[in-house]
Task: inverse folding
């Protein structure tokens, strides 16, 4: 291309969408008549009609078909048209008498186009008789006998090209299969020895543009007997009935586009025959026949080749389906197992990643990631979490309404993926909720692709009469390309399996959500009733206990002189028991009140809360000679009373469970990503690590009341206070080495994530 020529993407797009079927030109080897029913009036005719009929096109459009043919032929044609099945009619032999006693025989081919116009195409008949059924039979029988000797796809393809070449006599016959990306590859070839081989070569998608592919799906057989012949126009050029160009989608005579003809010229092709191979209403591939010189193949023989190709292709399809059958069975088994695992697991994600088979085996992936409830769960080789987050945002923005997304060239469609293409050049993704996804990944597979010419120079550009035009490349020699950033392609059965898993997962997630919602509701109601009972019962027990205490003390005062030592001891036991019961009731009341207070959290200066707690403990501090120090404490969103209670209980325990040395207690604090980590460290008797969880259970004690007083409620209250503030509490200790109690409070009151009931921070102090 010269430096001053510029071709835009818009011009490429226009070429790719060129309406070839509306060119209004036909190939010169035949004649076309556009007829109006029911009287078969001629509306349009090709301009080469004069050389055939000896009548000018202008005169022909004023006549009916019966003006050209005898009544016998007209009657046969009308009877055939009445059947509405043109396959039974075509081809019909038509005799046209010329001047004198001479006549010419045509193969007449009828069809109706999308505008419901009846079109008659006349091609020269090579024989005056139709090919008999036995010819078709023997042709098919010979091919079937050859197919019985092989079960390989490549061998089947070779049978097709050999049989078609034997029947037609073309110099080259190829079986051309389309890839998932739209490019094509020659998988079988039969040719003259001196011709350049195309077997195994890939050809870019642009070689057969979208309009041509649509036509191949609509018109399954296509002949160009002379690629160098000049096309013939219609007269009149525009259909006089609807004032539009004539739709020639199903025409056998329709002229090829100038670009396709140049393509054939550049390949040194003088004639071509193309047979479409359709699978599941999509263009699977083509049987492409090329001849160096002009070559005409009759309509009947073309139909015979089409029949042969479709018959053998049916066997190819069966082979493909057989090859996929075992894999399909495996995928079906894996999917059913995964659904069963999910249904039985408490957490459906565990059912996908913690069993065998797992999520990877469903689609033969090397890595997978599940995003649910703002948390990633991964298996196999996947990008880093920060990269997963970016992929997720891209998917949500680009494909929010899709039930599945897949690509084997992720770096091409999402350039940010270039840095992790070694693990994620292929991506298959399904949404399972508004913001939740399952992603599968395949690594890059570097491969060398053999092309028929440079695919990046599929077109050449030129200028003619101050206009730029596109022309296909002139070279089809081997051109190798190393392809990177591409994974193995996702198979249809794998994509379907992912969609099926999505449906099952959504059902299970919804069901588990409903079950959890019901359980949460039942627990909430039960807890509310228990808390109410504990509060009311504890409150109502105060009065009778007070009466017992008062009357026992009154009994002791009034009859003191009459009581012996045993009686006084018994009364002392009763008073102590009542006192203990009152302490227990007070603790139960305090425990039940922790989350009954529907108070909005307010900014609380923890140094103020700590000083108030120390003030309440001043007597015990002075009595034991305790030394208490603390770091500068932050302000947090909390309940001030509960913070006071928390510090009071933890420091009080540190004083109570002291060693023979005076208590030394330090309150520390350090920032985390989204929370504050507090510690209360002492030099007391310590705790056996095996009891580090038990001590937070209500009424649990590690010592007798004779050793240490108390009800076993203090740490349970501390845990409840911390949990009500969405934090966590634990202890790190060894016997005889003191103890350090840790607890967290979210910074600014923010909620953060937990895993299995504990915060997921890899820099937390040991929990013993």
Result:
């Amino acid at each position: 291309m010269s430096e001053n020529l510029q071709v835009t993407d818009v011009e490429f797009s226009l070429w790719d969408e060129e309406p070839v079927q509306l060119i209004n030109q036909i190939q010169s080897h035949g004649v076309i008549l556009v007829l109006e029913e029911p009287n078969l009036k001629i509306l349009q005719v090709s301009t080469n009609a004069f050389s055939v009929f000896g009548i000018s096109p202008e005169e022909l459009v004023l006549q009916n078909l019966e003006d050209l043919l005898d009544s016998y032929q007209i009657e046969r044609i009308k009877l055939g048209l009445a059947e509405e099945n043109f396959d039974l009619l075509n081809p019909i032999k038509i005799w046209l008498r010329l001047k004198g006693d001479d006549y010419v025989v045509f193969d007449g081919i009828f069809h109706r186009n999308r505008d419901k116009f009846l079109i008659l195409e006349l091609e020269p008949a090579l024989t005056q008789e139709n090919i008999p059924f036995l010819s078709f039979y023997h042709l098919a029988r010979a091919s079937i006998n050859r197919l019985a000797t092989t079960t390989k796809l490549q061998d089947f393809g070779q049978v097709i090209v050999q049989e078609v070449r034997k029947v037609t006599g073309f110099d080259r016959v190829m079986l051309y299969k389309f890839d998932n990306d739209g490019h094509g590859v020659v998988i079988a070839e039969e040719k003259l020895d001196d011709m350049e081989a195309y077997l195994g070569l890939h050809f870019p998608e642009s070689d057969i543009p979208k309009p041509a592919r649509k036509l191949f799906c609509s018109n399954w057989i296509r002949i160009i007997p002379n690629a160098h012949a000049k096309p013939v126009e219609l007269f009149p050029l525009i259909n006089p009935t609807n004032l539009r160009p004539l739709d020639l989608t199903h025409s056998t005579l329709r002229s090829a586009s100038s670009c396709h003809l140049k393509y054939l010229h550049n390949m040194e092709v003088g004639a071509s025959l193309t047979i479409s191979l359709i699978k599941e209403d999509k263009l699977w591939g083509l049987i492409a026949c090329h001849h160096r010189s002009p070559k005409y193949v009759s309509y009947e023989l073309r139909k015979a080749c089409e029949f042969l190709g479709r018959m053998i292709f049916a066997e190819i399809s069966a082979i493909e389906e057989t090859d996929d059958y075992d894999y399909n069975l495996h995928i079906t088994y894996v999917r059913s197992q995964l659904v069963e695992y999910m249904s039985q697991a408490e957490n459906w994600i565990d059912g996908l990643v913690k069993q065998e088979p797992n999520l990877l085996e469903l689609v033969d992936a090397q890595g997978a990631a599940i995003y649910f409830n703002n948390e990633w769960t991964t298996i196999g080789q996947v990008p880093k979490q920060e990269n997963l987050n970016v992929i997720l945002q891209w998917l949500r923005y680009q494909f929010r309404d899709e039930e599945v997304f897949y690509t084997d060239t992720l770096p091409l469609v999402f350039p940010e993926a270039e840095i992790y293409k070694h693990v994620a050049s292929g991506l298959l993704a399904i949404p399972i909720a508004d913001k939740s996804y399952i992603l599968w990944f395949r690594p890059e597979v570097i491969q060398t692709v053999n092309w028929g010419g440079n695919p990046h120079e599929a077109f050449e550009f030129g200028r003619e009469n101050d206009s730029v035009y596109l022309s296909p490349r002139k070279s089809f020699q081997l051109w190798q390309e190393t392809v990177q950033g591409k994974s193995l392609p996702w198979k249809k059965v794998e994509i379907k399996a992912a969609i099926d898993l999505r449906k099952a997962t959504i059902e299970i997630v919804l069901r588990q959500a409903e079950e959890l919602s019901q359980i949460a509701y039942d627990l909430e109601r039960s807890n509310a009733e228990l808390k109410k009972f504990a509060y009311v019962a504890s409150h109502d027990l105060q009065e009778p206990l007070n009466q017992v205490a008062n009357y026992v003390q009154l009994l002791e005062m009034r009859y003191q002189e009459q009581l012996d030592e045993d009686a006084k001891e018994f009364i002392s036991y009763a008073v102590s028991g009542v006192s203990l019961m009152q302490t227990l009731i007070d603790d139960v009341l305090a425990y039940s009140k922790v989350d009954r207070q529907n108070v909005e959290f307010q900014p609380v200066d923890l140094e103020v809360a700590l000083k108030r707690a120390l003030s309440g403990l001043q007597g015990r501090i002075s009595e034991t000679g305790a030394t208490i120090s603390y770091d500068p404490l932050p302000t947090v969103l909390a309940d001030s009373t509960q913070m006071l209670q928390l510090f009071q209980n933890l420091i009080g325990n540190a004083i109570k469970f002291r060693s023979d040395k005076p208590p030394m207690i330090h309150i520390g604090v350090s920032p985390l990503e989204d929370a504050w980590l507090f510690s209360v460290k002492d030099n007391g008797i310590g705790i056996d690590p095996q009891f580090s969880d038990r001590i937070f259970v209500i009424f649990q004690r590690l010592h007798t009341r004779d050793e240490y007083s108390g009800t076993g409620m203090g740490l349970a209250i501390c845990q409840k206070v911390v949990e009500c503030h969405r934090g966590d509490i634990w202890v790190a200790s060894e016997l005889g080495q003191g103890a350090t109690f840790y607890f967290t409070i979210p910074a600014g009151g923010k909620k953060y994530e937990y895993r299995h009931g504990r915060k997921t921070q890899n820099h937390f102090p040991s929990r013993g």
